[in-house]
Queue: 3 jobs
Job 1
Amino acid sequence: MLGLTFAAPLALAALIGLPALWFLLRVTPPRPRRINFPPLKLVADLIPQRQTPARTPPWLLILRLLIAAALILAVAGPVWNAGGVGAGGGRSALLVLLDNGFPAAHDWRDRLRVATDAVEGAARDGRPVAVIGLADAPAAFEAKTPAAALERLRALAPRPILPARDAHLATIETFLDKNRGAGLVWISDGVAGAGDTRFAKGLADLAGDRGAALTVLRADRPPALALTATENAGKLVTHALRAAPNGRDAGVIRALDQKGLPLAERDFAFGADATEADAAFEMPVELRNSISRLEIAGERSAGAVVLQDERGKRRRVGLVFGGTLDQAQPLLAPTYYLSRALQPFADVQEPRGAKGTADSINQLLDNQVSVLVLADVGALDEKTTARIESFVKDGGMLLRFAGPRLAAGNDPLVPVRLRRGGRTLGGTLSWDSPKTLAPFPPESPFAGLTPPADIGVRRQILAEPDGDLPSRTWASLQDGTPIVTAQKRGQGTIVLFHVTADTTWSNLPLSGLFIDMLRRVVALAGAAAPVQGDATRAAAPVLAPRVTLDGFGALGSPPASATAVSADYADRANLEHPPGFYGPPDGGISVNALKPDDRLKPLDTAALEGARFGSLAGAETLDLRPSLFTLALLLLALDTLAGLWLGGFLRRGGLAARLRGRPAVLALAGLVLLAALPARPVRAEEPPANRPNGIESALVTRLAYVITGDAAVDEASRTGLTGLTQMLAARTALEPGEPAGIDPAKDELAFYPLIYWPIAPNRPQPSDVAIRKIDAFMRNGGTVLFDTRDALTARPGGPPTPEGAYLRKMLATLEVPELEPVPLDHVLTKAFYLVDSFPGRYATGQTWVEALPPAAEGAERRPARAGDGVSPIIITGNDLAAAWAVGRRGEPLYPVVGGDQRQREMAFRGGVNIVMYTLTGNYKADQVHVPALLERLGQ
């Protein structure tokens, strides 16, 4: 299908009529002759002459034939296809194979355009079409009409995974068996997928055996970038990846917290012909543990995002010392050494007001610590022991340190059997000298750490030798006796240091090695990997998907195909387990598109013998109809001028003299010219002066409204906020600037304390970028006022209105707090005016705000209550902007619906309260305002 094709080739038959036009257009009317009209000699001056038509000049005849030919060709629908999309296969079926994994997200629009051109080309040829996404689950398919294929194509979207192309070979073979000689177009992303080692060879064999013509379209160099991250020497190291050098040699990696706020940025740059570039985040541990998301700035792809879960963050560690109060001196107790060593990377908690060791342990377990540290704690009662065992089996970590009490008891909460009494090294009554630590074995979590030579152990608790002891030993002394042992129990781990946590038995707590060892032990809390050497392990718990990434790297609700994962899941994402967060926010895990050791590789197409290759850029088709219609119009204008010239109208004194004194004709010609000019589209968007995003916006407080694209709604929003702004300037100390119309996806929202968002159900849903920015705006203290404007049509208990359904769908991906109708004692009702409702154009709708915490029992009744901050969301259906809207002279623009004559005034008062509430917060709920509020309320 190379070169020129026609959508309606039968229209070319009209070209046969061009010779007939040649004879019809050869003549032209005779040139008019100017005759004087004397009133007295009418007959004498008239000289009868027979006028014969003149021949049409050949050049004018050719011009008119060109006009006719251009119109005929334009109607035939010519399309120039230089790249050969969908080439081969004649009139048989066409199969479009589209790579839709995350490597295709970067230039997804170009790929859709090429695929659409292929389907439209098949439609022009009358061929049935089938379209499949190679990252989707394999399923049987058949060739359908091009219209159905276009619908299927519009439904495709990038998947947040690497495509598993091999899985589709069976269904492709079935299709080719039914449609021999079909055409195949593979729009490839150029990146090797997950488990597609035989796809290229298998596809080439299928095409050769079934007589199919195979065309492979791909970018000249795979443009996709990806990201992985690993922990290295306490630093978070990110790896920017690409399949091959593609000209995108530098970029920025951003670290974001759970709210989407940037924490740090690092530049990366690929070396010459390199496919990997590293960037390390060296930051305070507190800030490092706040990272929830790493991404390549500007790369809209799930592969360019790394999600960080709780396994790489701070652990809540509880400390319990088994000694008496007189032994627990602040600077000498084991908890002092432990807290100082743990504070840089853990949230250390100690019991307060506890009575006894058991009470201390229960208090910390109630606080849901991840690691429970017991320093020289001896035997415990059965109830406490059972609770600790349950804590460990559920995934907690028990970290114990030896001491006299542990050495004298018989405790089941230890990883190995212990000898009573312990072993003393060095001293006046011992022949042995203090021992130092042996090098850590490779299978130990401490591998890579170097024990200093000056560490000396003077006393330790010995383990009873048995067959499991070597596999449970993480560290030992030079004589081979264990110094750190561990055992996996259920989902948790028990770790025992065979020395004390203070300096009475060794000087280990004084070394930097002690901090590094604790860091690695605590990092294992909640980790999915089993403890080295343990052969038995309980089944990991199952975690349901909470939020997942789409192919463009945006977090949203999990798809219906997403299934739960086990807590020890460490593989890359797939269709059943898309990348995202699984499980509860406090103890879940993250699944990413790539594993930390994955690398992108270019797709090997050497096995595609006989295939025709093309580039995405060269596959663009060009519709020639607009050009031919434009050419015909220009030639027609030229023909008109030529006819006027041949008729003598363009000579001196000709056309100008005839039109002189005919203003109606001139006016009509002007109207025709104005109508021919392209009309400017109606834009509901404010002019640039009303949408400042620079320093001016930070200096002037102004209200904002969201531009919906509906001209009537946006005009009501603009005039409504203008009226409210004027009312604020007249009645309060606030002098706001002109309201601004904003696009949440493009404009900075931090400049505006309140954003008014009217719901227009006839407009498309906001983009993911806009939703994420609105979510961050509300998290950071901003307030969004959603107005459904459906108070007249909404029915309590009835089906949702189109506006209500639109708002529900939009808020489904936002973390909206619990809402309630505005209570009478809410600070919003007393922020400036004393109001009990918030009417707008309508007064029957309900106004919703974030639910207040319940009043404490027995607390003194207060006239105004508020939460910890300003409600991030307010929802109403009363069409507030229409009630606030005023014209240039201050006249109301829209009538209010209701019997209250003061409804518009109350609407303005409610609007003033909303603005003052968003600006001043809950200060009116302070006790200092109680007397004044009670006096105004008459109580």
Note: The two ends are 87 Å apart (CA to CA).
Job 2
Amino acid sequence: MANGKKLVIVESPTKMKSIQGYLGDDYEVLSSVGHIRDLASKKEIPADKKAAYGKYSIDVENDFDPFYVVNDRKTKTVAELKRALKTADEVLLATDGDREGEAIAWHLLEVLKPKVPVRRMIFHEITKDAIREAAENTRELDVSLVDAQETRRVLDRLYGWDVSPVLWRKVGSGREGTALSAGRVQSAATRMVVERERERMAFVSASYWDVEALASQTGSSFTTRLARLDGAPIARGSDYDDNGNLKKAVVVLDEAKARALAAAITTAGRATVAKVEAKPGTRSPRAPFTTSTLQQEAGRKLSMSAKHAMGVAQRLYEKGFITYMRTDSVALSGQAISAARAQAVSLYGDKAVPANPRVYKSKSKNAQEAHEAVRPSGETFRTPASLASSLDRDEQKLYDLIWKRTVASQMADAKYETTTVTLTVAAGEQVAEFTASGTVYTFKGFLEAYEEGNDEKRNGRDDDEDQSLPAVAAGDELTVSDVEPKGHSTSPKPRYTEASLVKALEEKGIGRPSTFASIIGVILDRGYVSKRGQALVPSWLAFSVVRLLEEHFADLVDYDFTAALEDDLDAIARGEQRRTEWLKSFYFGSEKQVGLRHIVDNLGEIDARELNSTRITDTATLRFGKYGPYLEITEPGADAEAKPRIVNIPEELAPDELTPEKAQELIDAPVAGDRVLGENAENGKLVVVKDGRFGPYVQEVDAEEPDEVDQATGEVVEQPKKRGVKKEVAPKPRTASLFRSMSVDTIDLDTALQLLSLPRVVGADPETGAEITAQNGRFGPYLKKGTDSRSLDDEKQIFEITLDEAIAKYAEPKYGARRASSALKEFDADPVSGKAIKLKDGRFGPYVTDGETNATVPRGEDAMAVTFERAVELIADKRAKGPAPKKAPARKTTATKTTAAKTTAAKTTAAKTTAAKTTAAKTTAAKTAAAKTTAAKTAAAKTTAAKTAASKTTAARSTASKTAAASKTAAPKATTTRKAPATQS
């Protein structure tokens, strides 16, 4: 029986603890730990559903009905939720208030199938007042938001699973064998980065000169810059186009002219103030943070990646310090405006705020983002200093940024005055005009609290340097000294940073605030781009991928088309479009678009070799192969069938740096390898070091036998060819890769022989007698004993480790295949396990562990900045998710056994039937000669399998399953009707 408690289900374990404290004992708060189910993988689809759902886990012929399964990691979570549900008299689904949160709430409703009233609880900050108000003011599930999120998920599956296989076949694999992928947003983002690099590659730099001088008066001096010569403007970088041509009529100084002019100005030594112009101005504060502007500023000012910034913001939100961090609204509530204004007045005085509050309006019309900007939570804002003991370093930095931006957004305009001084100098027969500018703030206003950062600007040197100018008047005489001619070159557009890419994606309408961090994470993980400092540099792999998409999937990577998809999803979220009709148009085509299926079915032939080739010079072609990019050199006049020469490309060389000149430099460079180190005394073979396509290595080769010479004539005797004798296949020569610490220039014979002798036998395990060997592998040095391996700390240990040390290594825990390296940091004991927490550097990156649970430090987060509290949080989250599922061993298929269909979304466990193993298949009749045929066995097995499959119910998710709870069944049949959500009041 119900005990009167209300069951509140949130997404995060961290939220769970805070909210439980705010709601009290009348509520039980549990966490779903994110999504509990998703689209099935192909192997999870039962045999009787393969025909309809087998390709995408979506029945495209039946209103795009998706087939969901509960995540293996979430079975315990679901069981715990069902246990709590038995004693609850009401369920409050308190997942996040955006589309994804709404979809999680719907999936919980579908899986748990509560018989008690269900309501939706929404809050945008985790404070006592906000949580209690949310619990008292609930609503029904928003089916339009669910439809929009489900459409997005189906759309991404159709797009990715149709386009990605083309990349696998025609381009290959990504970084360290990572499977390539295509996606409607990630592909557009990759294209943007590649297009910027193409622009940089095509850019033609132009050179120009100008003159700078120091002007002085009564002890005060300032820097001036040549602006005009005889009334005509001097060329600046902005006057040139990307081809190095001038866009307007200006005076171009070369080095000789600039030096001659500088000499004439030095000789003159005096300048006259021609005019002084003073212009007043004002600057207004920026709006409070949205998700995208928060990511941009965190990148500019804190050097945080988008993913890292969102992770820190998530922690701040879950701890109750800021409002919900996924939003594109710039609006503030009345209480937030009052709090910001009050804090500004208390810190900077009454004049710091304008007479009327500032009201910001969002340009977005998304239904899912109809709440506040990212701001400090509560009716009064806590200062960063007051939270110093509650936040780790990254949290402190990001909270400080959010707090300052929010307070500044309600402060008064800054007022300033910009003064420009123009000087004239008689330089021989020419009149040179110099200018200098300076800005003085008469009232700093919001700048007392916050000033927005800037992205790198192109030709930024064209702007006059802001400086303090002395009081001068027209007609004043000034001294001119330190006259210096300066040469400049125009620069291409800067590469995207994470901040500027987020800004560009938002401007183009590609993606949504909640997806920007994951988009950038995907293109980094796939090896499409890498980071050089803050800049995003595309790989040659990205060039091949984008070229394929542009040539064969042009509509799918068109920016306007991608943005239109987002607008359509927004329309579905607002209830203005129907999910099914929209998906039919996208997939099958309509009057407005061709349709994904038509595009994929009519691809035609794709020349993979041409696709992965870029002509650099007439003789050098860049090709992208299985192991990365390389130059293929065709010598002029060479035989058409001659094997072209291969030249490696340095990993650190960016695509725009591979100019024809650089390519020739690589071609002409002496080959570092093919150096004979000496002879192996044991077998007489020569040991050679080479620099191969896949890295430097040493190899044993046979010494060339000297030709036999006729003593009488001195001519080489040709040996007669033996006909009809099959040529023996030569054994492969022994090779060994150099360690990372070794160089082809310094390696000697002894070291090479050690490498060739690997794997080294360390000894035998005294308990089992198994041989233990030390060797080097793809992921570094390791020990091997049968199928059991242990990582070594460094390459030197391969040759130095003793048997006792090796046995000690095997006595240590394996840590789930991670390198058991020494701890980078050590913390106090974990409050749950009671064991000391350590920060370690594993094979796949840094992680924290208490010896029982390992939790990876998220990509982009500074591992050395992890605090004890953060380590406890990471381990707690990982512990809540449960262990990673183990891959099921491959099952051998026999004639008389069938694999039971896997239970589906609703997790209805069908009784296991032994029909497939009945004695009918093993009767005496079956032992006769006639019945022993494979055909008879196959027929019997198929019949039995059909009966078994028919007896199992599935829970393929139905579009009609959003009906009232009373009408729900364990396995609803898919229909075309989508009704109101199954919430109860």
Note: Residues 677 and 749 are 5 Å apart (CA to CA).
Job 3
Amino acid sequence: MMKLKFCTLSVATVFFIGQNFSAQKKKSDTLTKEKQIDEVVIVAYGSQKKETLVGSNTEIKAKQFADRPITNIGQAIDGASPGVKISTGTGQPGSAPSIQIRGISSYAGSNDPLIILDGTPFTGSLSAINTNDIASFNILKDAASTSLYGSAAANGVILITTKSGRKGGRDLLNFNMSTGYVGRSISEYDRVNVYQYYPLIWEAMRNGQLATGSTLANANAYASNNLISGVLKQNAFDIPNNLLVVDGILNPDAKLKYTDLDWQKPLIRTGFRQNYELNYSGGTNKTTYYSSVGYTNESGYLVKSDFERFTAKLKVDSQIRDWLKLGTSLNAVSSYGNNAIDGANSNSSYVNPYNWIRNIGPIYSPFAHDPNTFATLYDTNGNVIYDNSARGADAASGRNVIQENLLNSDISKNFYIVSRAYAEFKIDPYLTLSTNVGYDVRNNRRSKYGNKIIGDAAPAGSSERTSIIEQTLTFNQLLNYKRKFGAHNFELLLGHENYKYMYEYLYGYKTGQVVDNNVELINFITPTSLTSQTDNYRKESFFSRLNYDYQSKYLLSGSVRWDASSRFAKDVRWNPFWSLGAGWRVKAEDFLKNSSTISELKLRGSYGQVGNDNTNTSDNAQNFYMYQNTYSLGYNNAQEAGILFNTKADPTITWESNNQSDVALDFGLFNNRITGTVEYYNRITKDMIFPVPQPVSAGIPGNAIYKNVGTMYNRGFEIGINADVIKTPNFVWSLNANASTLKNEITELSDGITEIINGTKKISVGHSVYDYWMKQWYGVDPADGSPLFLVADAYANTPASDIRTVNGVLVTTNHNKAKLDYSGSAIPKVFGSFGTSLSYKQWALSTMFTYQIGGKTYDSNYQGLMSSYSQGGALSTDILDRWTTTGQITDIPALNSSTYLNSNATSSRWLVKSDFISLRQATLSYSFNPDEISRYGLSSLKLLLSGENIWSKTARKGLEPGQSFNGTTTNRYTPARIISIGANLSF
């Protein structure tokens, strides 16, 4: 249905423009012909005319995201380009999304794109970059555009260019401010209330007794007598425990003893965001300068989740002599984070607030109450007393997630210095020598406190400190020769680059708090851990690129780069990466040159190889020393030293290579009123790094060795289109849309590997790395409400009480005998974005929707709410449709304490469609007429109303299909909705 709508919209747009274009344009004999200025885009190690590009390079300018209330530039990448998929960041202020460009490049290695900031690599957090300082970013996707970055380019490249001053003219002073509300963007799953809950658990207990042969009367009595004392432990009503539920009915005389049963309310709040930025820029004919200071303060919608950032930037470029140009920029960033629990990495932890406010039963109060009056209890200081008494097995008995989160703390302080400098020597009119230096230093300090009242650190209390210092130094030299011979244009680049990364880690942990309200290590008695680590990574590179075009009509490009990485042994350390590209600007041919309909038409293609040496194993040491066996220190026995064998390495391990081909058609119609690109790509990853299983008898830690053993491809189509539907002096209406497909498949596994099972996925030849491998759910038996699975072949001819035939299909009620099979993929069929922008006189409105069609999500969060025998855990309202009567057709099994492990087992039952559509952002603005505000010294004034993560529609309320690329869900801090108002002033 969505495909049909897109198609109809596109056809309608073309028809509309075609019919109205002639009415909107001025007659050619009344126009003064202006000189056309070539559009230039940023490319690897330089810039190039857009019309001569043969690579896939998407440029996003600052005006497309400048008015949005975003803290991280990664948020602006979402939906900005076809082929780019985003896994949304959490609701933690300052968090960053994950980015994939053209699919999955690696299994054991990193899939993150390379970030280049002002010409050199940037490995820090994107939240350290003030988005208002960014002039543009370019997304490079194919070998022709990325191969000059060689071994770091397999996952694509994002070039970020910061703002500079302007030559001549008047200096500009800009002040931007915004403030707004922060709230939850994804609604919670619907769950049963306290009145519905007790009878449901009673029913599961009664049915469990019936399944063991008890009579109905005895089963009913057992459930009534043990509902509270045996299972749930707490009774929220003023009725005796054994009379609360009788014959499955909640006692009609039952009244709640207290109503404060909401665990979400004490932890969820309305957050607040404010942002202020002041920049000053200008220049003479020889020198330009840009400076800025910025302040961002955002409190999340979860208590104790805050982010504060100060930024300062100074950038100066100067033409010292006709033959010498110098430039430097310096960024300083200081950020403070009050960090909520990371639900993604602590999914079922007792201190995970997203887990327990979702999954604790509706019968428990977080607060203690007087057993006689039922009044809420307070201590002598007037503070509420939290309940940590006995609860059901599924309700964190003895713990209180609210109290623990309020008492614990997790504070991060980050300090960044990001510096760039360059010198450019004009040797002659055709030859330029330049050198660039980038030096970044990041000091990340984190302090955590575990309280001594309740939780994992009780009763002693704990304090831990982590300090990480990272330094990167990049130094390159570029020799660029650019010459024109008649209609022939040549550009040759020769370069050398040295990259150095240094990592220093220090960690300490102590227990035994001495005095209250002091979390410094000196205030704790017993050191339980004190460790440090230093790692280094170096890369040496030589590279070259040759571009040629004839009359900007026939285009050729070739590049090569030799990289050496310290991650590999000397014999395999060096490797070449290269690309070849060609293009034909059909528009420049005589038969199209004067066409009034076709304003641009270019066919381009490329093939090349890039690499990946950025491993992503859980063992940090192995990431740096992949070819070496590693050992762990610190396993001492009193005064006796102890060293453990940590990893067994393959000394021949080497780069993962990525062979890429790309074919594209760029077009423009009606004086570029409609522009777009249709593109096909094929990426083949060779020498994939996998953990190769080893026999237990080999004594190898982890029973695996990382080796180059696999081959995989990613291929797909990308379509992007932009159209100015209406374009008049007072009214402009534009549309944009993009769509992408992705097919991923493993084509080879070697070294004895036939399959790798990892959670809900199985890696094997002929399947994607994101294909689900699961027990096959069949449904519910209408006869008795039993959960049913397809039978595994090994049990098909084995008579047993748990195997039966339903509707002619052999099934089992025992999940241990269920058939395992592939069950679809997490990869969508189509994903992308579409949007519109309208401007009428001084008003402007822009929106962007993101969407996904196809693919499946394994909704473990929903699975946790669908237990057939919850012992204090919350239940989805879908449980109300459970089987209760013989012959009933439903997909939800009977509640039963004897069979619930089968009903709730991991299986294809919990797969759900990943389709979604989201109103990702919208901005409404009003710009005052310059003539009206000039009397106040203002050159421009714009008022803004903007929103992020405004609305979404998914297959199930509460579902977050964009949470991960692999289709799994966790109880995590869901993304925030931000609605802000602001103003931009220029003087």
Note: The radius of gyration is 31 Å.
